[in-house]
TrEMBL record:
It comes from the Bacteria. Its cofactor is pyridoxal 5'-phosphate. It comes from Arachidicoccus ginsenosidivorans. The lineage of its organism: Bacteria, Pseudomonadati, Bacteroidota, Chitinophagia, Chitinophagales. This is Aspartate aminotransferase family protein. It holds the Pfam family Pyridoxal_deC.
Amino acid sequence: MKGQPVSIDPQLPLPEKLPLSDTGMGIEQVIKQFKENWTPHLVGASSSHYVGFVTGGVTPAALAGDWFTTVWDQNTQAVSGQGDVSARLEQVTIELVKELLGLPDAFMGGFVTGATMSNFTCLGTARQWWGAQKGINIAMDGITAHIPVLTATAHSSSIKCLSMLGIGSRNLIQVKITQGDREVMDMEDLAIKIKALDGAPFILISSAGTVNTVDFDDFNAINALKKTHNFWWHIDGAFGGFAACSPKYKHLVDGWQAADSITVDGHKWLNVPYDSGIFFIRKRHHLLSYETYRNSNAPYLGEVENGALLETMNFLNFLPENSRRFRALPAWFSLMSYGKKGYQQIVENSVERTRELSAWIEGQSKLMLVAPTRLNNICFTLRKQDDPKVEQFLYQLNKDGKVFMSPTLYRGKKAIRASFVNWQTSKEDIDFIKSALEKTLEQF
Ligand SMILES: Cc1ncc(COP(=O)(O)O)c(C=O)c1O
């Protein structure tokens, strides 16, 4: 993606729609049309100069795997290998990701479109678990009760999941965030909120990597609560879960092995192409997943009862989708090609490059960090300017297509985010980004 603009002037007029011809124009003409009219409007999101949102690049091995995914065009469902063996490869890939992240054998998992759907898959099973504590089968009978969900820093996608799951985003019980500059769950306030529930079961959503400061909740402290309280513990590790790949940073996820469910994202630090998210749920909960996602009245989809066994499972009875892309293949290609050291290097390089740019920003007279840089994200702003100027600065920076950063709000103030998860980011890329910032700063 070198050379392709990484952002587009939003004022550029969009390409026109051509009429659908009777006979079609042929693939060569279509490629020409695409190149001339559409690619100038596409952003090079896999470029190492694109540091907006949290967007990984695509490793060469993942690209090859993705081509094979399309060429083979499997509908990845039954592990038994009747019809195809893609579901078995998905299971194997889940095992590899567990190995990479130091997760115990106690987890099963699968691939979905992204972290939003992973959170949905996990929280759907959590909802069924909560019903089971009350003697209700929510999948069959629906929700008639208020399900307490506690969180301090849930990502918007988890809140969206509560809406989609009928739990209700308004029913969230907000736990305080610690004082100071961390985006972390306040354990004292959590204890107060739990006490108020008077022993009732609940769901707890915690974070492994918040979007501004990449902070991690205290998983050992949460784990300790498991001994005395009855709750489903979900961790959203979409952003920071891959810190587990590095001996330098794996302490950040210490204790997460005891969670009931975990989300990580493939199209972030795993550097496989969109769309790719991964969920993990403890194997001992697999019947709850099965109750939630089973296809109960479609004999043509195969024998359902055997599908409840993990050895003969069919993914379509354990997660929301029925038809499924062979999404594990790009991840398998990449994991097998680069191994543990390869991913350790990607993670450590991302953090080093982040720190390099962060230190430079700190030394600039016109820029300042608004939050400490802890791992692989920088939150910064213009030192002396107001919110509208910050928006203008970001607009100007992105406008000429050299780099792309995204906006954020930190403690009520507008700021800019630069997030590093791309496998290709080098020292030269950081110099390039610095000079793009310098050039834009001349106008402010
Ligand atoms: C912590 C966290 N959770 C969930 C998501 C949603 O991920 P996706 O866009 O893959 O659905 C994101 C996306 O940035 C995230 O940072």
